[in-house]
């Protein structure tokens, strides 16, 4: 690995900044990555689609494409790993390398490692380092120690982005549909693609899934490669090593000149050294002294001591240091000895009682819960019917409360005469309110089910659309609109309009649902 040829700034980054670096590398080499991706994955898509269509399982191609992702990931990994530490490979080199490069590591990711959530980070270990066994396990453990969570979140984010891209491609077609035709078109798209899809619709979904992973997967691999680069920079200090290499390159020329000058100067030293040696030999011959026999106290003068007392004192002080002694003081409770030398023993019954109390204190709530469950199961014949009767009575009370106003204030037998009488008295609001209440009562009888408590006019209108008798449904809508105009807009109904409504009301009843 030639660090001096690296094309990115090597420095410790946060995990998410490292993923941004990987994404930036993918954008920088996008042409080489996606051109090779299309040349390799498009034939695979066509082959998988034809095989699955032939066996009448077109949707199986989506699962196979998802399973083959580690094989396709070798394409962006090959381009990025070469581009970071040298020149980016050409399209021919990238396509040719897919026949032989990285297969051993990719095949393992197709088996027991396929569901590993850290594929974005650890795939680089298998494709670029080729470690196996315990070495690979230790390597992955060290790399994932500080980047395990970002790698997992990267996988989760990539999955959701793929899903959003698929939905976006489907909704893109609906963007061109006019608003008035949108509900029908959306329903048709749903039925065609999801409920009972024909073969061509399933193959279209396969193509949409391939398009989504073709957009997202290179960015996922690049982000994982960025985490890998950042983690190795932190562990192996690539940035410091690269700085030293650059410093050595800058100092190479001055050091060479300095060494050359020192070599020229050293050529004048042998003659002087020889002359000095002759003088020293003459002095030794004159004195008859032997250099090897000179005692140490003569050489070191007063500073020499042969007892080693200072060293021993320093060693003893070091051992007495509590931070370096390795000794510690522990305190614990011990049984008290009696005067006879025997240890006082706790009675067995007291130990048994203490164990029972501790067990009840630790598991008391679970024991109470178990007893309660046993009691409930044992006496279910007593409390279950009582609970059922209580629920039925409460429902009956609620139903009675809902219909109480209708039973307290009964409708007149001759509704038309009562409405006209109230109108003649000048009480138009009470007349139309009575008419509206009678219409709601007939609607309830026609539907066979009570309306929700406090139902509004709009809710009653929605319920009237369930009637099979369309004339009464239209009459009910007219009555509701007339009541709303009087109650909320203070617009009373004319006598002619009220007579027409009462005439339609008095026709033979055909409001069966």
State the gist of this model.
The chain folds into three domains: 3-236, no CATH class; 365-407; 411-505, no CATH class.
Largest sheet composition: none
Number of strands: 0
Helix content estimate = over 70%
Q: H/E order of the elements?
A: HHHHHHHHHHHHHHHHHHHHHHH
Give the rounded overall mean pLDDT: 75
Sheet-strand content, in percent, reads under 5%
Q: Report the span from N to C terminus.
A: 83 Å
Low-confidence stretches: 287-293, 396-408
Structural shape: extended
Description:
The chain is mainly α and 513 residues long. It folds into 3 domains: 3-236, no CATH class; 365-407; 411-505, no CATH class. Helix content is 74%, strand content 0%. It is extended. It starts with 14 loop residues before the first helix and ends in an 8-residue tail after the last helix. Residues 287-293 and 396-408 have low confidence and may be disordered.
Supply the key terms:
513 residues, mainly alpha, 3 domains, 23 helices, 74% helix
Question: Could you outline the blueprint of secondary structure elements for this entry?
Answer:
Elements: H1 15-28, H2 30-54, H3 60-67, H4 69-72, H5 74-84, H6 91-97, H7 103-109, H8 119-129, H9 133-174, H10 182-195, H11 199-236, H12 238-266, H13 269-287, H14 296-300, H15 309-320, H16 322-325, H17 348-378, H18 380-408, H19 415-424, H20 428-447, H21 457-464, H22 470-489, H23 495-505
Helix pairs in contact: 1-11, 2-3, 2-6, 2-11, 3-11, 5-11, 7-8, 8-9, 8-11, 9-11, 19-20, 20-22
């Amino acid at each position: 690995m030639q660090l001096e040829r690296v094309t990115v700034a090597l420095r410790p980054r946060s995990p998410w900044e490292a993923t941004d670096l990987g994404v930036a590398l993918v954008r920088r080499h996008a042409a080489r990555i996606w051109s090779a991706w299309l040349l390799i994955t498009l034939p695979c898509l066509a082959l998988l689609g034809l095989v699955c269509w032939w066996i009448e399982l077109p949707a199986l191609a989506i699962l196979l494409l998802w399973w083959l992702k580690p094989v396709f990931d070798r394409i962006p990994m090959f381009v990025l790993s070469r581009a970071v530490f040298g020149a980016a490979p050409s399209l021919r080199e990238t396509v040719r390398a897919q026949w032989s490069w990285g297969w051993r590591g990719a095949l393992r990711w197709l088996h027991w490692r396929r569901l590993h959530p850290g594929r974005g980070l650890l795939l680089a270990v298998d494709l670029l380092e080729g470690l196996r066994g315990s070495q690979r396990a230790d390597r992955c453990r060290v790399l994932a120690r500080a980047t395990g969570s970002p790698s997992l979140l990267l996988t989760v984010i990539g999955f959701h982005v793929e899903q959003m891209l698929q939905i976006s491609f489907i909704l893109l077609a609906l963007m061109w549909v006019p608003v008035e035709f949108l509900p029908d078109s959306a329903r048709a798209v749903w039925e065609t693609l999801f409920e009972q899809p024909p073969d061509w619709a399933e193959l279209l979904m396969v193509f949409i899934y391939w398009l989504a992973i073709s957009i997202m997967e290179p960015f996922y691999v690049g982000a994982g490669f960025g985490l890998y680069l950042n983690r190795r920079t932190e562990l192996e200090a690539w940035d410091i090593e690269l700085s030293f290499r650059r410093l050595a390159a800058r100092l190479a020329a001055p050091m060479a000149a300095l060494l050359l000058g020192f070599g020229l100067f050293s050529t004048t030293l042998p003659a002087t050294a020889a002359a000095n040696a002759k003088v020293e030999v003459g002095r030794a011959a004159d004195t008859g002294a032997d250099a090897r026999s000179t005692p140490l106290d003569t050489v070191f003068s007063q500073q020499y001591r042969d007892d080693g007392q200072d060293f021993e004192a320093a060693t003893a002080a070091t051992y007495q240091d509590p931070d370096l002694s390795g000794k510690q003081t522990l305190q614990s409770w011990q049984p008290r000895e009696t005067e006879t030398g025997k240890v006082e023993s706790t009675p067995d019954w007291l130990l048994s009682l203490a164990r029972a109390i501790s067990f009840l204190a630790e598991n008391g709530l679970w024991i109470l819960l178990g007893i309660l469950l046993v009691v409930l199961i044992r006496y279910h014949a007593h409390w279950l019917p009582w609970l059922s009767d209580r629920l039925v009575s409460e429902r009956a009370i609620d139903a009675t409360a809902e219909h109480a106003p209708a039973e307290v204030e009964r409708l007149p037998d001759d509704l038309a005469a009562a409405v006209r009488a109230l109108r003649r008295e000048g009480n138009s609001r009470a007349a139309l309110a009575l008419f509206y209440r009678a219409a709601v009562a007939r609607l309830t009888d026609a539907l066979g089910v009570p309306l929700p408590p406090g139902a509004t006019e709009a809710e009653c209108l929605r319920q009237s659309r369930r009637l099979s008798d369309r004339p009464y449904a239209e009459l009910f809508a007219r009555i509701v609109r007339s009541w709303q105009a009087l109650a909320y807009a203070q617009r009373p109904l004319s006598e002619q309009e009220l007579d027409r409504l009462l005439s339609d009301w008095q026709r033979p009843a055909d409001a069966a649902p």
